[in-house]
Amino acid sequence: MVEYVLFRQRLRSMYSGSSFYILFSLIAAIFFGFILSIIACLFTATSITEFIDEIRSPEIISSILISLETSFVVVILALFFGIPTAYFLATKQFRGSSILDTLIDIPIIFPPLVCGLAILIAFGGQGVFRHFEVLFTIKGIIIAQLFVASPFLIRSTRTAFESINPDTINAARTLGASEFYTFRKISLPLARNGIISGVVMTWSRALGEFGATAMVAGCIPYRTETMTIGIYMHAMSGNLGASVALSLFLVGFAFIMLIIFKSYGRYNDPSG
Amino acid sequence: MIHLDDICKSFGNEDVLRSLNLHVKKGEMFVLLGASGCGKTTALSIIAGLEKEDSGDVYVDGTLMNGLPAEKREIGFVFQNNALFPHLNVHENVEFGLKARRMDNRGKVKRALEIVGLDGFDNKNPMKLSGGEQQRVALARTLVTEPRCILMDEPLSNLDAIVRERLRYEMKRIQKEIGITSIFVTHDQTEAMMLGDRIAVMNKGSIEESGTPEKIFYKPDKEFVARFIGMKNIFNGKIVSLDENEGVMNITTENFDLTAVFMPLDEGTHVKACIRPEEIILMKSNQKMSARNEIMGKIVSIFPNGVLMRIVVDVCGSSFSVDITRLAEHNMELKIGNDVVLTFKACSVHLIS
Lengths: 272, 353
Known about the structure:
By secondary structure, chain A is mostly helical. Chain A has helices spanning 2-15, 19-44, 48-55, 58-91, 97-109, 112-123, 138-162, 166-174, 179-190, 192-208, 211-217, 227-236, 240-267. Chain A is globular and about 65 Å long. By secondary structure, chain B is α+β, with helices and mostly antiparallel strands. Chain B has helices at residues 40-48, 70-73, 90-100, 108-115, 131-143, 161-178, 189-195, 213-218, 223-228, 326-332, and strands spanning 2-11, 14-24, 29-33, 55-60, 63-64, 75-78, 149-153, 181-186, 198-203, 206-211, 233-243, 248-253, 257-261, 270-275, 281-283, 293-305, 308-315, 318-325, 339-344, 350-352.
């Protein structure tokens, strides 16, 4: 680590001042300027009074509540299914484990719209799960978000489990701990930071999910309108103020959650 | 106490253990000595229940262990990398086994930490301790659960030399104090010699030879063992005559003759004659010595070998390695090409028949 930092420092002192270095920093500056000005436009499109007015409208409050409720349930479900799956993938090597591995990544690679279409077919009139009646309901939103967002939790948690030294687990076993006890007292606490960052990614993905959700649950105000769907609907119907207010709320909320989780993870870092 | 009967284990196409047999007596410190990759760690893992044997039986205290999960075996294990729980402090680490087994822990953690000399370290973060201290915590954590026996997998090999030596003494002391049956795995001969009540030398997944340190280091029965423990001078020879009155016998090798202590062997028997490098006296001129063996040769190389100097001497095409002190080498002003005389006693010649 120290060597790496020293290497970076040396590289920096080597290149600063050269025309090569100046050219590359200019390109980087243009890129950052582009991104920053776009984000700034979002913040300058509204005033505080307008923001407060918009955010208090019943339709927007309803969409915020639907988003929070569904994403919270999605995180809980992702933890329930994701942690055992991640542990299984991290500890068992078998024929076909790489296929399973790829399967987990499919929802990340597939366009959300396609995921949504697949769910629509599976739960639709002729689908295998047609008896569940989830289309155009809150349950549909949850399924769509879970499908798209849970792989993030699985990947991150799995990496955390993989980085635990097997001897640490073996030591617990020889000291008389059953597999369940070892998992609860050793594996889970040691994988905690990976699980937390997985939760952050899954949650923000679920909150930001649009394509699959729209496909499965439609865009019914007060019933299946999440924050992102609201943003789209209001923007398309010309009500830009409501769209911007929702966007700012979404961004602010995600940012605050990120800070809370990051600091929580850091202060409790087991390796001190 | 610990019995391994014909244990076989392979990973894929590689046979790691080939019919391994082992008998460890109650209360002894048994050292498994072998080069890396000879199957030592796998053997320990199978005894502890961390690996499953392909065939063969494991008995501890007369009970068949096969199929019993690790947590039910009550066998302590100390790992090479200490395997402490990084999210728990020293006290919680030591307490872990007691809690997992729902054992009464009043005063036990404190006593265990006292035994390993870490009294008062309870609230420290184990990751911030020195390597030696970490290994002490690992030992305390294992001892506190009062296991039937304790298996140690190269616990000292990641430590620096000074700490290693001190901890070696302490491990021996603690083991004798508690009287716990132990298997200690190492590739370090000095460690094996110092710690072991008995030593087994392992090679390619089975035991080559086992016995007391004295036996293994000075009178091994197998050429592999002789080479492994550093008998550099091993020569093929044949017994040409026996002199029972003098208590000696004469041996001829390809390039020179030797005298060894009498053994009940027939004339004409093929033997391997082994002489430890430090048992040979090297001189520049031929002085009168009481030693039976006197061989002339020429120095071909001189290099440091630990604290000693290794002198390689060519004797009519055979190569002798001799270890002498640095001071002796300096005083004699030895140079490559010097003619020298090698002398050693008849009892320094160990024969493998």
